[in-house]
Amino acid sequence: MRAVILIVLSSIILGSAAAPVLQLPSNVTLGHLGFSDGLPDDRFRIGRTIEAPFLPVDTTLINVLFVMGLIGVQDQNAELDPQTWSAPGYNQVEIQSFAYTEARFVLWGAYFAILDMIDSARFHNTVINLYWEDQFVGRMKFAVKATLSLPGGNSNNGENLSSGGQQIIEPTDLENSTHTTVLGAAPSIPADIAGNATAENYTDDLRSLWSTSTTNHSALSSPSPVNDRPTFTVDIDYSYLFRPLKRNDVFLTFFLAIIHASQFDAHLPMSPFETRSPLGNSISLKLSNLNVGCCYGAVINLLTYVPKFMAEHPSPGYWDLDFVARTNYQGVCKGELRKSS
Q1: Model-level pTM?
Q2: What are the Cα distances from residue 109, in Å, to 241, 267, 274, 283, 300?
Q3: Contacts of 26 (CB under 8 A, 6+ apart)
Q4: Are strands 135-144 and 90-97 parallel, antiparallel or unpaired?
Q5: What is the per-residue burial (b if ≥16 Cβ within 10 Å, else e) of 155-166?
Q6: Which residues pair with 286 in a beta bridge?
Q7: Digit-coded pLDDT (tens) for 167-182
């Protein structure tokens, strides 16, 4: 299955007569998924058309992360209404779907679109057609809004896109760098604890989590439960290894982890898994459950938050780290992000 998937990634077929073939570079490896569940399915492909306006890179990555998080907790066979999404605080970019499309196709389409932007080092407005077994099943658009108030205007801000988002920040005081984000109430957890959890619970939790602020762990006061739901916190601890990571590898690795988690019902307890960057297996991401409450919906919310935190905190930024989700300060889910040896 991995070899077949690689063929699809390396020469994604024409979406239509006018759509170009998506060619990925030779450094996409056979083990690009990091697990063997065969997702995205090799019967799925996209065709894309590039338009002139530039997309701001960080804002685009974060919007794709947000949309994949919202869709990942849905029933993946359910048809989604046409929608327009923008991440809170990052509404300079919009992602649209134009037809009643199965959730999994929108999720996979978002991943393939951003993978192509990264690999071709071309962040432009993009329209993609979605195909399942050679049948057209939907269309998406990634576009900068007409009025863009970013520094530098509607450009990539002079970034060398081929660098993979390599940071140049020095690892100062990382050994003491612990950050905690507090959400007033815990993400919806399994039915035996919190009643019948729904996809709407998780999407509401995701929007709430993205609207919270981050504090230094040592200065954190003890929050109280909200609406009889336990307090939820995310601890992010930078590893003693001090190994820098590339931004693009980090985001792609988390995107694939979301795709993996999306195939399971959101309320089910998570089984530990590992995924790797599709570009040379340069990063490893391991997820494990520490206690009851580590369900796939909460894990997807956690996976959407951590890269956003790294992007918003350039010091320390992209380095090896551990992260733990806690309910009432009891760890329920743990993640380890490492540069591969």
Answers
A1: 0.76
A2: 35, 24, 22, 23, 18
A3: none
A4: antiparallel
A5: bbeeeeeeebbe
A6: 274, 336
A7: 433 334 444 455 554 4
